[in-house]
Amino acid sequence: MNEFVEIVLGSSIIIPIAIGYFGIDRVIELTNLGGLGLGFRTMPFLFEQWGPIMSALAGVAFFGLLFFAGITSSLAMGTPVVGFLQDEFGWKKGKAAMGFGLIILLMGLPTVLFFQQGVFDEYDYWAGTVALFVFAMLEAVMFAWVFKLDRGWEEITRGSDINVPRFFKYVLKYVTPVVLIIVFVSSLIRPVKDDWSKLSLSGWSLHGESILGQILHKGIDYNNTYFANEFYSEVEGTVKGVILENERNYLQIDGANGSSTSYLVKESYEVLVKPDQQIAKGEPIIKGKIINKVFYSDMARILLVSLFIVICFMVYYAYRRRLKNNTL
């Protein structure tokens, strides 16, 4: 029911409204930034049409419920971590909760401070998509082949009120691991333009959305260095000019398809283009001490890998302690 409400009802509300107000091209552009951008741009725009009073009430109700949904899910996910710290390290519940909260704060701050630089999207992709799938694949393989499916099947059916069909035993052992491995490998080495005929032992060009392509920043043709003295346009279009939005200056470029792209212009930056000027991809538009998004992307990845290493070390340390105390 939870997934039905979130996916079916949520998308049935947001997507038609987004297409109606923004158009299909703009919606495609927003979805490339993630569902978060779509929801947080569409719903405020919708509420604004309802007048000052109703828009305020609807905004508080919608985003208030969204906040409580997120915070309760976070607490539910944090309970196993708190329990782990209590059981394996002897921490009291308050200390374990504070430790978990501190880790969440430190890991979450970059997504707020550098949201415009894509740190949140990196977290969402690597932790919420790739890692979720990889661990599901490893869990399926370990359950069926390491833990042994006969033992696992005994655990599944022990004391159950409903007899699980034996058909699923073979699905768990053969179908699920194989399908997950095929999907993972395909996502890992996905070729450019999805042309699988180009695969060869001598190598092939990776798709920008493949896992290896994401790691190597294959989808970034311009602004692909950490630091630069010039920023290059990533779109073709007409320069509208520098606009003020949320007390920040942005250089806006209108594309031929009606979409617009904005780039942050700091006080120390020099704008190299003029209003109504036609520009092409790769043309320098801003000059200054630029820190490109690839820097923030790699720093976000390093943070996630560091967290994973710390978790692995803590689990290994707890395992060694149990082995030493003969409490496994």
Describe what this molecule looks like in 3D.
Helices cover 61% and strands 12% of the residues. It is of the alpha+beta class and 328 residues long. Helix 1 (2-22) packs across helix 3 and helix 2 crosses helix 3 (35-48). A four-stranded antiparallel β-sheet has the order 4-3-2-6, with no helix packed on it. It has three domains: 2-97, no CATH class; 119-188 and 296-325, no CATH class; 227-290, RNA polymerase II/Efflux pump adaptor protein, barrel-sandwich hybrid domain (OB fold (Dihydrolipoamide Acetyltransferase, E2P), Beta Barrel), CATH 2.40.50.100.
Order of helices and strands: HHHHHHHHHEEEEEEEH
| Average pLDDT | 87
Largest sheet: 4 strands, antiparallel
Class of secondary structure makeup: alpha+beta
Structure summary, number of beta strands: 7
Question: Radius of gyration, Cα only, in angstroms?
Answer: 25 Å
Strand order of the largest sheet: 4-3-2-6
